[in-house]
Design a protein that fits this description.
The chain is α/β, with parallel strands linked by helices. The protein contains 10 helices and 10 strands. It has helices spanning 41-54, 72-84, 98-106, 124-137, 150-167, 182-193, 245-259, 265-277, 305-310, 322-339; strands spanning 15-17, 26-31, 64-68, 87-92, 110-113, 141-143, 173-177, 199-205, 239-243, 286-291. The mean pLDDT is 94. Bound molecules: pyridoxal-5'-phosphate (PLP).
Length: 340
């Protein structure tokens, strides 16, 4: 397959069957890390920028796109802006993977870091306050605003969901993680628009306030919000499964050990939600789940034993991964050489 440009490298038809994950059902994972920027967010970036372009709000060389991101959208917007000639500034928090922060800069984006927690113990409120301050101080700045942009939902209605239902006919359950809820609502609207019988199951980490539960500190980027997501229409979601982050991390590591799949933290949370929901899945059912990114950006965090211990996300059930201990040793060695 020859693609015309990197932006067209949206590999939307990649699924893998996960044998034995739910013994009585077939389980298909939609893998999103083969997209050019390593995550599902390339589609979100393209549609958000497309939406602003249609409104005439972006001018090459002049406009500066600004966004608050947990990482993946920042990388995708940085790449798209570079290609289209827009300047880009990304407001990030301490949960961003350092490789994603570096990638934003490699693509020419400007990274602004916030470190103060908001009133709900997360960083979203602080990030958005920082975005607003930038918008006020620079007249050429335009907010991408993934939290409200119709482009966010449209991306997943027209691409992600279309690919899921085009590939997997007669799906009984679709599991989707909830961040901004662009993916979730894109799928929900597709199901409703096409009057499908598929039940939509949302996965949300414990500590997220998205569905009205109390806030607490979270460490895995991508899923959960510390403010209610404006895009979320709860009535379009059939089931909600809340998952402690530690359980999601454990499933990421089990996937490496047992299935040879190396995925990101939010994927583990969605897989943990599937396991929690499994007793309600009838025999012979067919299930799909969206896996937003791969494991590489998380080598230093969820695949690192020392980080898990520090964040109290480790538990006794966690499969030991030799490489995860090695990451710890490499870090110690590096720290040692810095002090030398
Ligand atoms: C790794 C990862 N997973 C899940 C999500 C959530 O997707 P959405 O914002 O469409 O709800 C994001 C969004 O940033 C993400 O980066």
């Amino acid at each position: 397959v020859i693609y015309k440009s990197a932006q067209e490298l949206v590999l939307d038809d990649v699924f893998v069957e996960l044998q034995g994950f739910i013994p009585q059902a077939r389980v298909y994972l939609k893998l999103e890390h083969f997209n050019a920027t390593g995550s599902i967010k390339l589609k979100t970036a393209l549609h958000i920028v497309g939406h602003l372009e249609r409104l005439g709000r972006l001018a090459p060389e002049v406009s500066e796109l600004v966004e608050s991101s947990s990482g993946n959208l920042g990388v995708a917007l940085a790449m798209v802006c570079r290609q289209k000639g827009y300047r880009f500034t990304c407001v990030v928090d301490p949960n961003i993977s350092e490789s994603n922060a570096a990638l934003i800069e490699l693509f020419g984006g400007n990274v602004v870091r916030v470190s103060e927690r908001d009133e709900n113990g997360g960083y979203l409120g602080t990030r958005i306050r920082q975005v607003r301050a930038i918008l006020e101080s620079r007249p050429q700045a335009v907010w991408a605003n993934q939290y409200e942009s119709p482009g966010n939902v449209e991306a997943h209605f027209s691409r992600t969901a279309a690919s899921v239902f085009g590939t997997l006919k007669d799906l009984d359950f679709l599991f989707v993680g909830a961040g901004t809820c662009g993916t979730l609502m894109g799928c929900a609207r597709y199901i409703r628009h096409h009057q499908l019988r598929t039940r939509l199951v949302a996965a949300d980490p414990v500590g997220s306030v998205s569905f009205g539960y109390p806030p607490s500190a979270r460490h895995v980027p991508g899923l959960g919000m510390s403010q209610r997501p404006p895009l979320l229409e709860e009535a379009l979601v059939d089931h909600l499964i809340r998952v402690p982050e530690a359980e999601g991390v454990q499933w990421c590591r089990r996937l490496v050990a047992e299935h040879g799949l190396f995925l990101g933290g939010s994927s583990g949370i969605v897989l943990a939600a599937m396991q929690r929901f499994a007793p309600r899945i009838p025999s012979g059912a067919s299930c799909a789940a969206i896996m937003p990114d791969g494991g590489l950006p998380y080598l230093e965090t969820i695949y690192n034993d020392a980080w898990l211990a520090e964040k109290r996300l480790a538990d006794d059930e966690m499969p030991a991964l030799r490489g995860a201990a090695a990451v710890r040793m490499r870090r110690r060695a590096l720290a040692g050489s810095e002090h030398a």
